[in-house]
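[recover] target loaded
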């Protein structure tokens, strides 16, 4: 990609702080949470701080990693795509 042209839109009900594209698979991971001023009043079991995985082409969510206690500020895939 040589431009900043919009290619895909992945919809969530929470703000997104970071996104990464897998180097091996057709996956995108999004990390975020909720508005910073609301963090101290949120129960972590509600699922507001999950890392969410989407299919790169079809834009469908297919998985989540739960258990983060606050907003996710950065996500990444290892360059070899295996870790």
């Amino acid at each position: 990609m040589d431009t900043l042209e919009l290619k895909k839109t992945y919809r969530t009900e929470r703000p997104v702080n970071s996104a990464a594209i897998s180097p091996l698979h057709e996956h995108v991971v999004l990390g975020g949470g909720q508005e910073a001023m609301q963090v101290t009043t949120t129960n972590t079991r509600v699922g507001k701080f999950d890392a969410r995985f989407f299919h790169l082409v079809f834009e469908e969510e297919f998985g989540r990693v739960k258990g983060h206690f606050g907003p996710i500020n950065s996500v990444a895939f290892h360059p070899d795509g295996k870790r």
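[recover] notes: The chain has a mean pLDDT of 84.
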